[in-house]
Each structure stands twice: as structure tokens, then as C-alpha cells.
Amino acid sequence: MTRQQLVDSIFAKKSFLCVGLDTDIQLLPQCLKAKTDAGFEFNKNIIDATVAFATSIKINTAFYECDGLKGWDLLERTAHYIKQNYPEIFLIADAKRGDIGNTSKMYARAFLQNLPFDAITVAPYMGADSVKPFLEFENKWVIVLALTSNSGASDFQTLTLHDSQKKLCHQVLETAVKWGTANNMMFVTGATRAEMLSQIREIIPHHFLLVPGVGAQGGSLSEVVKHAYTKDCGLLVNSSRGIIYASGGDDYASKAAAEAEKLQQQMMELMGL
Amino acid sequence: MTRQQLVDSIFAKKSFLCVGLDTDIQLLPQCLKAKTDAGFEFNKNIIDATVAFATSIKINTAFYECDGLKGWDLLERTAHYIKQNYPEIFLIADAKRGDIGNTSKMYARAFLQNLPFDAITVAPYMGADSVKPFLEFENKWVIVLALTSNSGASDFQTLTLHDSQKKLCHQVLETAVKWGTANNMMFVTGATRAEMLSQIREIIPHHFLLVPGVGAQGGSLSEVVKHAYTKDCGLLVNSSRGIIYASGGDDYASKAAAEAEKLQQQMMELMGL
After folding, report:
1. B161 touching chain A per CB within 8 A
2. CA closest to B108 among chain A residues
3. Bridge partner list, B142
4. Helix, strand, coil percentages in chain B from 3-state DSSP, rounded to 5
5. Beta partners for A210?
6. Strand B56-60 versus strand B17-21 pairing type
7. What is the pLDDT of residues A64-90, one digit of tens each?
8. Closest Cα to residue B128, out of B146, B104, B92, B148?
9. Can you give the C-alpha Rg of chain B in angstroms?
10. Is any Cβ of chain B less than 8 angstroms from the Cβ of A156?
11. Is there a smaller number of Cβ atoms within 10 Å at the N or the C end of chain A?
12. Does A218 touch chain B (CB under 8 A)?
């Protein structure tokens, strides 16, 4: 997907919501538990119910790998279902991969070539040659971790470097932007540290940010918009548990839709549309 | 596997070799290409041929994910085959995972609970809560990236921090050792930077190091031993491509065995045994 297609989709839907499919088989609604293909039915119903309010869907690979072969099958079928039925959805593999060049190339093929993902999240610790192989696919995106939403982000990401006097996460932004462009690279910046988003915007005024941490993790949507919204929107804000587990009952899909719509309505208002 | 079991196995086999199964389906020997289960036959034959010379096997998940469902199936069957037939082998999932706590917990379950791996490699960028969930399984190990063997390691890992005046990779060691013990945590330190291993040994004198970069990447085994060998050995040195692709012909397994034996003989000599 091109940047223009993504921006058009955001303004058409008046939403920059990313729905996170962190589908934990053990947490499925009771009404699905006896079904043979419960995971797919859950994902399908959540997708169909929320897709009107979202521009993006993020599949968190951990929740699928955890269920082994069956889980990987669910991941693949879910990705294909989304792209076949809703090609306008910006589909993210939240995989946090990254390895030496020849290995990253295999991860890149796995998600960006052999599966229909538009983007993959990548960890920056191993540097340029661990990220660049993901940038070799036309109209596909790399989303590099910069400042994450979890408490451990302060262990290394916010430490100051000696030479540049910059925080590590800012150095990651400055170095990584040179590997790609604002048309094939985004950055993960957590909503739980919204006050730091202004500084991040100074370094990368044009890049899209994938912002987790709204919802279960406590981040504020209006704060994110205040500090990081651009004329092209420039944001994909993710909510996972707050949407997909809005209800554990038979009404899980309609409740998920209601939560997604609530966020979309807030986004529309914050966008001034 | 306990640390004592690993150390006993190293001294019994007079080897601290880890064979890396970076099995690229497109690079299989010609004689296997027509077979229906070529990947498994290749892995099985490589394992059977090299296991006498190795204490550890490392499965690089990227090369399996790249082949989708079939690849994940191969990963699982290979892991089970190794542990069923060679339970003394220290089996590593080279997966470079790491995410927020509730997600890392799912990755940990995937590899350390639902599959028979003894250890998994983990990226440190997201800090404590991204690594700790992997430490909750008895006699299982986390192998944290510290100083990797690739060129991109110099992008961030070797930058100096302002407050501690330490390199980031040294700070990672100092911080991460507090999350676990020398009985459940190792570190990845590349053989291509052997001169830096002495400094690393000052910070972590007792922890095992997983050392990639010998072979195709150009690192020297004797330099690694000189700078980082301990009385418990303290090393697992990996070779992947140099062993499994030693020959592209019918003799791929015997040639792999010869390469593994060559490394084992060098190791035995360097161990003074």
C-alpha cells in the first residue's frame, strides 16, 4: 500500500484506528469454545464488525505462534481473509523481528512476500543490515521500534548517549530514517509517553507513527493527537484488548464494534472532521 | 537443561559446538529437491551426522517461517526429532523475540513450554518486562542479544552512554544480569568482535556466551577461546552455513559431519583435553 492510499483511507473513514488481533485462544468467548475453528470464527467476526471503523489491523504473531501449527495456520488464514475481503486495510504483522542480513531477508519474505502483510514491526538493536532487507519490497513498510509503551522502555530506550547527547530512542530515529523514506518506514512510539511525542515529531515531522498503549495500557488518544498529529494524520493508533475483549459473552462482536466506533468517533472529532 | 548438565555434556563430548540449522529450502542439495519431505530429510541427516560433534543445535526460526505453514511444521518436527533422539542436545530457538510483557509471555509459551526448546534468543531493546516472561520456566534459558556479529552492531550497540560512560552492549549486560542468573541466562556475543570479549568477560565472568560469526562470517575460534573461555567452558560457538552447506552434493551429510568434526577437534585442542 502506498502512503497516499493509506492517507486517503484514513480521511475517507475518518479514522486512524488500528485494531490489534491479539487473539488468545484461552480467552475466547464461552459461546465459541466448543467450535472446531473457534479462533478463525472469532477473528472473522471481530474483523467484519470493526472494519468500518478502522484503517488498519495488526496481527500480533506471538498469540498465534503460541498455538503452534494450528496457530500459524490461523495467522495465515486471518491475513488472507482480511486482504481478500478488505484490501483497503493496512495490514501489519506485529512480529518485532530483526536479525543479521541474510536472516532478516527470510523474515521479510515470510511476511511481506509470502503473506499479504503491508508492514512488519522490526526491532532496531542489530542496526542497519537487520532492518534494510525489509525495505526491499515495493509498497511495503517497515515499522521500527523507537519508544515503546511498556515499563521496560526506560531500561535502555531513554538513556542518553555520550557523543550526541541524545536519548537512544531519538538516535534510533535519526539513524533509521536514513535507511528508508517516509513512504516505506514508520516508527512505534507508545501512547503511554505522549509528552515525548513532540520531541519525536521534531526529529521525524513526516513519518507515520504506530502508537500502541491506548486502552488497556492507559495512554490518552487526545494527548497523542495533540503532540503528534500532522496534516496527513501521520498516526495509526492501536487498541487490542480494549476492543477484542470488550465482552466475553455472545455479544463480543457487537461490543467490539461499539468500542471501535467509540474510538473512531473520538478520532473524527480530534481530526476536526 | 541445567547448567551442570550442559557443562557435563560439553566436557563429555569435548565440544562446545552449536550447529545452526538455517535450512533454506531453496538451497537444498539437488538429490533432495524432488522429495516430498526434503526439508525434514535434510535436517534429520544433518543432525544424525553432526550430533556426535556438537553439544547444541540452534534452529533459526526465520528460515522456517519463510516457508509458511509447511515451514512451521518442519520447525516443530525438527525440534521434536532432536529432543526425542538426542535429549542431551541443548536446543536453541534462534528467534530474536521480545515484546511487552503479556506478549513475551506468549512467545515464551510457544518455544519453551509448547515446543521442546531449552533456550530462546531475545532482543533487549524493550527492557525488563520484555525479557522476564522467558525466565519463568524451570531449567529453560534466555539468551539475550548483547554484541551481535553483524556490521549493524556498530549502529547502536557500541555507542557510549552519557551517565555510565559504558557502551550500550555493556549496559545491556549489566542491567540484564539482574533479571536472571548464570543458570538461566546467556548472552549473544559475536565472534567477529573477539577483541571485545575480554571486556564482556569482566562484566559477566560466569555466564555462558552464545557466539555466532565463526565460519561464513569470518570470526576466529581461537580468538574467542583466548578472550572468553572459562573453567566451565562458558561458550557455545555456532556455525551454520559452514556446516550445513559444506557440500551441495549427495555427500552433504558426510561433508557436514567432517566440518563439525574439524571444529570439534579444534575445540578439544583449545580446551586442552
Report:
1. yes
2. A66
3. B120, B185
4. 50, 20, 35
5. A188, A236
6. parallel
7. 999 999 999 999 999 999 999 999 999
8. B104
9. 18
10. yes
11. C
12. no
**A127·B151 Cβ contact <8 A:** yes
pLDDT digits (tens, 9 = 90+) for B158-201: 999 999 999 999 999 999 999 999 999 999 999 887 889 999 99
Average pLDDT over residues A160-177: 97
Residue A66 CA to residue A78 CA, distance in Å, equals 16
From the centroid of its chain, how far is CA B231?
A: 20
How far apart are the two ends of chain A, measured CA to CA in Å?
24
The set of cell numbers assigned to A162 is: 555520550
- The residue among A96, A157, A239 with the most chain B CBs within 10 A of its CB, best to mutate, is A96
Q: At which residue does the C-alpha cell 551454520 appear?
A: B240
Domain ranges, ordered by start, for chain A: 3-270
Of the candidates B120, B119, B112, B43, the residue with the CA atom closest to the CA atom of residue B82: B43
**Do A166 and B156 meet the contact criterion of CB atoms below 8 Å apart?**
no
CA atoms of B95 and B60, how far apart (whole Å) = 6
Q: Which chain B residue has the Cα nearest residue A130?
A: B152
From the list A99, A111, A179, A101, the residue with the least C-alpha distance to A140 is: A111
The share of chain A scoring above pLDDT 90, in percent, equals 93
**A180-228, pLDDT tens digit by residue?**
999 999 999 998 877 899 999 999 999 999 999 887 778 899 999 999 9
User: Between helices A38-50 and A252-270, what is the axis angle to 10°?
Assistant: 30
> B24 in helix, strand or coil?
coil
Mean pLDDT confidence for B221-243:
96
Q: Do A161 and B165 touch (CB under 8 A)?
A: no
The CATH architecture that domain B3-270 belongs to is Alpha-Beta Barrel (3.20)
B128 part of contact set with chain A, CB < 8 Å:
yes
CA distances to B18, B34, B115 from B143, rounded to whole Å, are 14, 37, 17
Contact A61, A94 (CB under 8 A): yes
Structure pTM?
0.98
Beta strands in chain B (DSSP E): 17-21, 56-60, 90-97, 119-122, 141-147, 185-189, 208-211, 235-239
For residue A162, how many other CB atoms are within 10 A of its CB? 15
Across the range B41-56, mean pLDDT stands at 98
